[in-house]
Give the backbone structure.
Amino acid sequence: MNLVSFFRTDRSSVNLALRVTLGLVMFPHGAQKLLGWFGGPGFSGTMGFFTSQAGVPAPIAFLVIMAESIGALMLIVGAGTRLAAVGIFSVMVGAVAMQHWQHGFFMNWFGNKAGEGFEYHLLVLAIAGVLAVVGAGRLSVDAWIADKLGGKGATVRSIVRPVPSRKAA
């Protein structure tokens, strides 16, 4: 995959909706881990939990925090969408394998199970997988970069500034 291919995307509003929604859903989880917002433990608390209690190696714990926080912001603006989507995809695979698989499919809606199932994670995996393959879509930094690099994907220029119409000869 060359650099233009990494950023190339179409002008789909569906991709825009998927990436912004995924970014907005993931960011609060990342902000809990990175910044301590929304009642979270912050960076040092999260690193401590992952490395001491969950047995996650420190470099992986760091990447999880970055994927959920910075990766979510990248999705919202459509910058490095494929990388951010692969990061979130990887986090969800790890979460299911390490924590949620044992609790079955369903979320713990009634508080009567020992933990949460993996249904939410499957939705995130599907959305992140699609974005990793098809790219950011409309109104994305990726499309603008692809255009600047000479790609034939969506162009921010054609979205922001009207393209002159061609008159029939």
